[in-house]
Amino acid sequence: MVWFRIGSSVAKLAIRRTLSQSRCGSYATRTRVLPCQTRCFHSTILKSKAESAAPVPRPVPLSKLTDSFLDGTSSVYLEELQRAWEADPNSVDESWDNFFRNFVGQASTSPGISGQTIQESMRLLLLVRAYQVNGHMKAKLDPLGLEKREIPEDLTPGLYGFTEADLDREFFLGVWRMSGFLSENRPVQTLRSILSRLEQAYCGTIGYEYMHIADRDKCNWLRDKIETPTPRQYNSERRMVIYDRLTWSTQFENFLATKWTTAKRFGLEGAESLIPGMKEMFDRSADLGVENIVIGMPHRGRLNVLGNVVRKPLRQIFSEFSGGTRPVDEVGLYTGTGDVKYHLGTSYDRPTRGGKHLHLSLVANPSHLEAVDPVVIGKTRAKQYYTKDENRTKNMGILIHGDGSFAGQGVVYETLHLSALPNYCTGGTVHIVVNNQVAFTTDPREGRSSQYCTDVAKALSAPIFHVNADDIEAVVHACELAAEWRQTFHSDVVVDLVCYRRFGHNEIDEPSFTQPKMYKVIRSHPSSLQIYQEKLLQSGQVTQEDIDKIQKKVSSILNEEYEASKDYIPQKRDWLASHWTGFKSPEQISRIRNTGVKPEILKNVGKAISTFPENFKPHRGVKRVYEQRAQMIESGEGIDWGLGEALAFATLVVEGNHVRLSGQDVERGTFSHRHSVLHDQETGEEYCPLDHLIKNQDPEMFTVSNSSLSEFGVLGFELGYSMENPNSLVIWEAQFGDFANGAQVMFDQFISSGEAKWLRQTGLVVLLPHGYDGQGPEHSSGRLERFLQMSDDNPYVIPEMDPTLRKQIQECNWQVVNVTTPANYFHVLRRQIHRDFRKPLIVMAPKNLLRHKQCVSNLSEFDDVKGHPGFDKQGTRFKRLIKDQSGHSDLEEGIRRLVLCSGKVYYELDEERKKSETKDVAICRVEQLCPFPYDLIQRELKRYPNAEIVWCQEEPMNMGGYQYIALRLCTAMKALQRGNFNDIKYVGRLPSAATATGFYQLHVKEQTDLVKKALQPDPITPVIP
Ligand SMILES: Cc1ncc(C[n+]2csc(CCOP(=O)(O)OP(=O)(O)O)c2C)c(N)n1
Ligand SMILES: [Mg+2]
User: Fold this and answer.
1) Which of 303, 405, 409 to mutate to test the pocket of ligand 1 (most atoms within 8 A of CB)?
2) What CATH class does 110-227 carry?
3) Which of 120, 291, 520, 543 is deepest in the core (most CB within 10 A)?
4) 244-325+336-570 CATH
5) How far does the centroid of ligand 2 lie from the alpha carbon of residue 499, in Å?
């Protein structure tokens, strides 16, 4: 036999074991795996003397132990030692005496064994361990049989000295405190049966990878499931359910293929077993307490999952295929742009096999593979918060991946890395990789450097079950096991469904251009359904009649649904989930509400957020900040940015809203301005004043959390979180605004266009520190221009601006603001919640304004008292534009220039104006750039009828607000006959490739020049000379 190619010269020594009753003290030299939190892998520790009755072993002479375990010298040495020990236990070193006594003491419980030497036992243990570690390398995973893998040598029994002569000898394995093969309660078996069961368990159609997991209990749990005494068997009833589900999956694709021959559907052919696998996984999860499942998945098989797993009505899916998606009873209402059918999301309740009910939500996603992953996880976490699912066992996330994208897309790793973080953990995600061994046209050898496409998950200690998708029962088993793992250990698990793609990347592609050999095999390869059918018939448990019945039933339902789809009329838009009932769609007017807060509430929460327990000892500097805050509240003056923000959070929380702020270093604040979590300098204890606003406040009601160093993953997570329930202010803050482009897909594909494509709202707030302080190209710009360029308001049309009829924000895809006062920041955050719709908010957040003497507000600007500075005609609200602060009247004919600007440059302009004692220049701040405040801009244009109109910005001309503002300002001016594009004067930096200079002196010069120019006595030269 091949596996005996390495013979052993080790002599066979028969030991007649003496029964040793005494087990105590026999574990002195056992290996223990440290608990996972130490993150050590297989560290060996010795028990202390106190813990064990056995003597501490003394060192053995090095010369004798430097021999490798398997070479003859050490084996013979061991055997000699053993013989000597048997003759006289005192003749060997105390440590060896101890060792032999332990070993014989264990093995002696199996009187039937004869001739098992210590070396053989040890080698057998190594062999079993080799199967546990590397058995998957020999597993038959590829349904096409094309896979060429070298079988690791350590799976060869001959390597351990076993020969054919040993096959029918009996061996006892249970010497270690282990489960499965090595558990102590296993019977004595012949080597032949041990090997055959090892092969069945580890080298069949499931390859288990779990030995990278450091936690011994978890490994033992898996061994118990994998190394069962006999192979798993499903009864005939269960088999019929599996067969039925596989039939649905297969026929669904066939049906679409025959009805819509040229339509792209990214079919599941070759991976049909995904559907029964998912269903069985869901059933098992429901049995174990799961009530809600959030699903994220790419194009491949999505329609099949929608129809057969989520149970979206088939007639609706067919109707969408025929192009009829617009609800007829809602003509004229907002439908957005829509999206292709294999991107749409949905949610349904489905009954399970065990008689329970599961709520399933499939999250809409763009083409960008894997981008939806963190969104799903964030949504799952939010569901856990809102359902008080503290153990995280009722709400679960499932992610389906492709093999190419799982290995290739970095967001996968970013998402996996959120899995165990306290404020991002969801109690485990089940990942299924539809591994069809090709990515579009790219072979795995060109697409990844790792052996398996799933190797990335090993970094997170997730078990990975590779399964041959042609063995449907193995698929079901792996999927059930994954569900059990998740509910037991509350951590991620991966099922790698090794399958193939029967057709091209989509139905119109020709796969043989690039994979000729593979497709030659595929053409004659039977489907999973045919294979299973054959197996069932052969088992005799099922008759042809049973099979025909199921086939006929499925086919007739598909046909009935198809007929019904012809007259299918969508009743209502699948608009908003239940939490969102009553929220307005863009065509419904939402009354503008005030955001001022009663003065006594402001005082009360103000006090609560600026104090900490008496015996708490924060850092001196932080203590000072808190004392200053308390003073600001007391005096009602000089409220700075940090306190303004904390007041917004606190007032929202006391009104019953959930507030969550996450991002890198947000707890302290990158610029050391927030200090939302205090650290006792002696005990290290933490205290977050915003957690103590109301009696028995849920500790998560206000959440501030430093995140992992990820933009794409964390922003996606917060987006998903924000979409679950509208009564939450969810904020992601970038460290510096420019880092946001690491999450560009989130902005382009989800945040700016999600509502238009998928009719899903979010009130997510994104804080992007922005401003030119001379910190170089990478820390100056939040790339305001990009967000403005993605805004969808028409630059040439002034929408209805009457306050009672205005829907401008509702109709726009998002809001972009650059706010300049703490009070206005307070109101813009509160406005996110105090309205009947939700819209993303992009904030160019300040840096040096955080400590700027002028950038402060009085408490009276936060309250709702008539006559106070924040209170205008309607009440206290966010100011989209802040007019000149010089006390100008409604008509100022003597003003020669109106400078419009946004952000911190205002303070520099104002300072220069004071310094130069300029009286005839007005400076207005455009606080909300998008949607453009036409009404307020026109009000200012009218106020200064003779003024030259200037847009001043600190960004280069090809960046900042200029391009966006100029078009809309021009539209506003034209409507008032105040000139055209060339009448808008530009003051700012010249066009530039980099956002800013790296030379500080140059920065200062540029900044001074532009500020001076905005106030220069001479008219400013037009942009177009
Ligand atoms: C981020 C991203 N890059 C590229 C593509 C284009 N694309 C669509 S499908 C595909 C292949 C995906 O391969 P795999 O993940 O193995 O899934 P499969 O189609 O094989 O199921 C590619 C490259 C994409 N959709 N998203
Ligand atoms: Mg693939």
Assistant:
1) 405
2) mainly alpha
3) 120
4) 3.40.50.970
5) 9
